[in-house]
Amino acid sequence: MWDLLPSGPQLGGATANFAYFASLLGEEGVVASRVGRDELGDRAVDRISGLGLSTDAIQRDEVYPTGTVDVAIGPDGQPDFIINGDVAWEHMAWTAGWSALAARTDAVCFGTVSRHQAGSIGAVTAFLEALRPSAICIFDVNLRQDRYSATLLHESFQHAHIVKLNDEELRTVCPLLDLGGEDLESMARQLCEHYELEVVCVTRGAEGSLVVTSTETVAHPGVPVDVVDTIGAGDAFTAVLASGYLRGVPLERVSEAANRLGAWVASQTGAMPSADEAVCSAVRNTLREA
């Protein structure tokens, strides 16, 4: 989808951002989505291709237009999103191409927004169920407007191995699912244990992050940065988390690398800033150190 920022449109969407940042880490990031047969759809496909990503899994819709999101940026760089409906990504379809992609996927990132739509939930669920047993499913919670429910969250957590959400989302999710906890760590652990998750990651904006497993907690204070806007910063974090987890990197190093890449994205405009090779190389090295 296109983020319609005050400075102009920028290509975005949490899972597309994830694929882009995964590619910056040296992985093969693939965007599986749907755009309209319109100008914005053409521009989206061109932009994805220009970023070096495959467009083979991007479907084209003959009826519905390419998705857009109206975005306002607050003084602290935090975005406020209004998602426009009746668009192509709400009508993703399960296809032979997606089946083949699922069969070779090592990690998939999915969110609440696309699974809230009846037209897309079947395709997304089919993709998750077609994965190899060794693949990991990352649920990026992303609570937006009224596009979530307790039932949707419960079902999504059941599909996940890893969950990423921010501190405000965690404080919303736990009461909604009748889970306890007095602070972020205890709430994250409740979520982890209740759904038998392998990792729960809580991003905390300028205060860094908290990564929780059933036996370990890794807190990071964050990386100071002059914030332009925070769009895509959490998605960069998730991409590092996925890459590091697949490679068996210790959580302390994953957390350091994720916070550094997320902070750099927050210092840029839009969700998919052009790569800064010095930053990306440092992050890759952190994930590959012996």
Task: Report on the architecture of this protein.
- By secondary structure, the protein is an alpha/beta fold.
- The chain has a single domain (2-288), classed as Ribokinase (UDP-N-acetylmuramoyl-L-alanine:D-glutamate ligase).
- The protein has helices at residues 14-24, 39-50, 96-103, 112-115, 118-129, 150-159, 167-176, 184-194, 233-246, 251-266, 277-288, and strands at residues 2-5, 8-11, 33-36, 58-61, 68-73, 79-83, 107-111, 136-140, 162-166, 199-203, 209-212, 217-220.
- Helix 7 (167-176) crosses helix 8 (184-194) and helix 9 (233-246) packs antiparallel against helix 10.
- It is globular, with a radius of gyration of 18 Å.
Summary?
This protein has helices spanning 14-24, 39-50, 96-103, 112-115, 118-129, 150-159, 167-176, 184-194, 233-246, 251-266, 277-288; strands spanning 2-5, 8-11, 33-36, 58-61, 68-73, 79-83, 107-111, 136-140, 162-166, 199-203, 209-212, 217-220. The protein has 290 residues and is an alpha/beta fold.
